[in-house]
Amino acid sequence: MTARQWITVTLLLMPGLGLIVWLIGTVVYIAFAQSFGLYNINGESALTTAYWADLLGNNIYLRSVRYSTYIGVMSAIFSVVLAYPLAIWLRKPFTGSMTIGSILKAPLLVHGLVAAFLFVNVISYHGILNQFMQWIGIWDGPHRLQNDNNAIAVLILQTWKNMPFALLLLTGALQGISDDVLDAARDLGAGSWARFRKIIAPLTVSGMQAAIVIIFIGAVSDFAFQVIAGPINRQSLAQLMVGYKGRGDWNSAAVVGATMIIVALFGSAILAGLSKIVMRGRLK
Amino acid sequence: MNRLRLNNILMALVIALAFIWLFIPFVMAVLWSLVDPSQPWTADKLLPPAMSFYRWVNMWQNSSLQPALLTSYTLAPSAAILSLLLAFPTSFALGRIAFPGREVAKTLCLLPLVVPPFITAVFFTALLYRLGLTAWRPGAIIFAHAVVFLPFSIRILTVSFETVRQDHIDAARDLGAGHWARFKAAYLPALRPGIYASLLIVFIQSIEEFAIAFIVGSPDVVTIPVLLYSALGQDYVRPNAAVLSLILVIPNVFLMLFLERLLKSANPTLASGKG
Amino acid sequence: MAAINIQKLSKDFSGFKALTELSLDVREGEFLTLLGPSGCGKTTLLKIISGFIEPTKGHILLNGKDVTKVPPEARDTALCFQSYALFPHLSVRENLEFGLRQKKVPALDRKDRIADVAEKLGLGPQMDKLPNQLSGGQQQRVSLGRALVMRPSVILFDEPLSNLDAKLRDQVRLEIRRIQKDYKLTAIYVTHDQAEALAMSDRIVVLKSGQIEQVDTPERLYAAPRTGFVADFIGNANVFTGRVLPQKTPTIWRIETPIGILETGNNAGTEGAEITLCWRPENAEINDDGALGGTVTSKAFQGHFTDLMVETKGVPYRIQTSRTDVNEGDTIGFNVPGPSVILLENAQ
Ligand SMILES: Nc1ncnc2c1ncn2[C@@H]1O[C@H](COP(=O)(O)OP(=O)(O)OP(=O)(O)O)[C@@H](O)[C@H]1O
Ligand SMILES: [Mg+2]
Q1: Which of C14, C35, C40 to mutate to test the pocket of ligand 1 (most atoms within 8 A of CB)?
Q2: For the ABC transmembrane type-1 domain, which residue ranges apply (chain B) (predicted)?
Q3: Rounded CA gap, C316 and C298, in Å?
Q4: How far apart are CA C207 and CA B3, in angstroms?
């Protein structure tokens, strides 16, 4: 490549990639800088670890980290675990498989907030679920389901919204495996389980990693589901961050933001690595 | 034929589950949106005692629904066009020039997808304050949406650029076509589906986006998701929320159906052939 | 080692008959070749035998046991796929090892068998590569090796050498045959190359649109094809229809064909009968005072012989000769020796 070509490529990349790197880079940089007291909007900027020290000693913050990680990991696992068998089932077309696929993917069209509303509607104190359970006589009176302490409502919502996405990625990966390759494995004596472990799993692991990582990051930074259906006595990281920002405490918000980035990055690296080990059955 | 039986059972099961997880919630929403305020729908009744379109009319006339719709449906196409324009040169480079580090560049383009949206929103706002650019909020939202959804546009257009066949370009050139004529004859037909798909995807994403619109836009700019958020939070009236939810969902369904058609016709494996 | 009995096998693909009432017995340790034009159902038959395709009608017996409903993983067969079907995420070694691991062959034994096959197929330097790092021919040999290493009682090859150069093909062909003999495998082999079929097989099955045309040893198939289709498919043949003339002597029959009268010691039947016959181009003897004659319309030098297209009264046919002094436009005379006139079943 000549210098001229390099200049052309660089200029071409500027408005797209350049902007991405600049904006996202700045955003991440600001988050980290502000968490150390730099880059302040109002007031003095001074390098300090006080904000980190402050929050690391704060129980609410620590609970949020644990809570958001829990939501992220569980949502990713539930979505993928549900999506896998469905994707395998739908790999080869059969009569009605298109319809089933569309029904399963329908939640992709529904905005998360709408999903939350629909769900709350169903599980609310006088909602249809409570009515139904009383009607068939399992429960004596209505139960309070909406803001349960284990965030089951949030997890159901996350799975409801994200499973179709995992399904989409996994079906794509699965359809990339040719029939002959699976037949060859059968011919060499591999039963259903061996075919899954040795052929399907390793060949779809990258699709699965993509699904896990994206779902995990989305769920770790969840705000809307948490506010509407989450436990009252716990806050997600995004909720905490927005709270600090609303009070004008940018530095603490930055600490929480930086934490979220760290959790998102490390969490997805760990999850991606783990899924590779689990799916491949070996380190390689 | 055992397999066939199993398949049928599974299908019945999925349809039954879909009934629970799609149909019931939507029917409930529709019913709630039709509750007439004259008589409340209490727990002991199967159907609302009085049904009317009062809530729909009322929401339409007396809430911020109209301005929110206007805002959303102005911001989204603007963001879609801006995103397309920004993606174009980069996609050209990624799709048609073989330069060292191209794969790294492609991966870097996915960056906005891995940074949680609330972080982008909050610290983009911090950046705006810093630069003193807080005057025109809608512009800030358009810009942020365009950049955050750039990965989609770049990805789609890169694939389109890759499917442009070199022999078409060469043939056009051979026949004496200039730059513009070459673009029209060789590039545009291959790019057109990608351009539509990119516009549509960014449009849908932007209509749905909550974090940036909420944080960057507050308190002046209200989009539909922001409105819905407050309708589900501080101003919670169930029938009103039902109306808003349905309004947010319906156009999506149509857009997505349209998109599905478009993506099928633009399937690169069908269009590229060999060469 | 196993015998295969195929009984009245039919396969419909939504109305299209890929196989029709096909019956065939393969003996233990036999090397049987399927030969036939593209789309005649060869792959379909192999896939039914290995269990991937369920036949519409009919039965498959392995060693006398009906396996029609047995799943592929439970049949002691190995198929070498026409499309290779290598596992893309596994190295060559792991691909070869896959079936052995499934069968729980001890590690030491596995190593020996793989080393053996790799050496015979010339895959030694490729063992740690992934399939997409191999050339087409190398991939094909891995696919072949993956089936051979299993030493199953029945081994099925779907055009396993189609992508190899002529030299490698000869060499691998010998190896396949040797392994098959050493381990007494029953083999069914699909090829498009009739020379390969003639060279390797114990018996050859000629298929035509899902039905068997003829099953025989290579020698008999070549010398005594039953139909014009078989005659023309195995080697070349000039096929004519003719009418039986009055016999010359009690042991010599005379047949009138469009290019002249042929004499043969083969029983052509009663006078006046309409028959179909053929002769091989290489059996014609060019000879100035031959009983037959024609004009050479084109010639193609093939190395050890020359291919001539000859015409008599507008009817074209082919003659192969070792003579090089014949030119286009020449008029030649020739004889077709009596024993090389092959009488065919009338139905073409
Ligand atoms: N799954 C299928 N559905 C419909 N028709 C099929 C299917 N598989 C094969 N066929 C048809 O059955 C016929 C036989 O196919 P097969 O693959 O057995 O041919 P083949 O003899 O192996 O040909 P080739 O030498 O080209 O490999 C073909 O006409 C083919 O179109
Ligand atoms: Mg075939």
Answers
A1: C40
A2: 69-259
A3: 11
A4: 32
Mean pLDDT of A181-210: 89
Q: Among C11, C38, C43, C83, which is best to mutate for testing ligand 1, by the most ligand atoms less than 8 A from CB?
A: C43
pLDDT at A171 over 50: yes
Q: How many domains does chain C have?
A: 2
Between CA C186 and CA C199 the distance in angstroms is 17
Complex-level ipTM: 0.78
Strands (E), chain C: 4-13, 16-26, 31-35, 57-62, 65-66, 77-80, 154-158, 186-191, 203-208, 211-216, 238-244, 253-257, 260-264, 274-279, 285-286, 292-301, 306-312, 315-321, 331-335, 342-344
The residue count of chain B comes to 275
Does ligand 1 have an atom closer than 6 angstroms to the CB of C38?
A: yes
Tell whether C268 is covered by a domain: yes
Alpha-carbon separation of residue C168 from A202, C143, C158 (angstroms): 33, 15, 17
- Residue C7 CA to residue C26 CA, distance in Å, equals 11
- Closest by CA to A70, choosing from A266, A244, A267, A208, is A267
> Beta strands C65-66 and C211-216: pairing type?
unpaired
CATH number reported for the structural domain that contains residue A201 in this entry: 1.10.3720.10
Q: How far is the CA of C42 from the centre of ligand 2 (A)?
A: 6
Say which residues have a Cβ less than 8 Å from residue B270's Cβ, sequence separation at least 6. Answer: none
Per-position DSSP letters for B173-185, written without gaps between them:
HHTT--HHHHIII
Query: Does the CB atom of residue C43 touch ligand 1 within 6 A?
Result: yes
Cβ contacts of residue A56 below 8 Å, gap of 6+?
A62
What percent of chain B shows pLDDT beyond 90? 12
Ligand 1 geometric centre to CA of A187 (Å) = 19
Neighbours of A273 (CB within 10 A): 12
Residues C52-90: tens digit of each pLDDT: 898 999 999 998 889 998 888 888 889 998 888 899 888
- The mean pLDDT value for B246-271 works out to 67
Q: Do residues C107 and C195 share a domain?
A: yes
Structural domain of residue B229, as residue ranges? 64-271
Digit-coded pLDDT (tens) for C200-218: 899 999 999 899 999 999 9
Q: Is residue A134 part of a domain?
A: yes
Q: Are C167 and C11 in contact, with CB atoms under 8 Å apart?
A: no
Is C165 in contact with C74 (CB distance < 8 Å)?
no
Pick the ligand that lies closest to the CA of residue C19.
1
Alpha-carbon gap, residue B215 to C235, rounded angstroms: 81
* Token pair listed for B252: 């999506």
Residue B1 has pLDDT above 70, yes or no: no
> Amino acid identity, residue C142?
V
Q: How many domains does chain B have?
A: 1
Q: Is the peptide bond before B219 cis (omega within 30 degrees of 0)?
A: yes
Q: Are strands C203-208 and C342-344 parallel, antiparallel or unpaired?
A: unpaired
Q: How far apart are CA C223 and CA C241, in angstroms?
A: 19
pTM: 0.79
The residue with tokens 């993956």 is C146
Q: Which positions in chain A have a beta carbon within 8 angstroms of at least one beta carbon in chain C? A: 178, 180-181, 183-191, 194, 198-199, 202-203
Average pLDDT over residues A41-45: 70
Asked whether B134 and B128 are in contact (CB, 8 A), the reply is yes
Tally of CB atoms within 10 A around A94? 13
Whether C219 and C331 map to the same domain: the answer is no
Instruction: Specify whether the backbone of C129 is left (phi greater than 0), alpha (psi in -120 to 50) or beta.
Output: beta
* CA-closest candidate to residue B249, choices A120, A110, A121: A110
Taking CA atoms, A245 is separated from B143, C6, C215, in Å, by 22, 78, 86
Domain that holds residue C330: 236-344
- Does a structural domain hold residue B149? yes
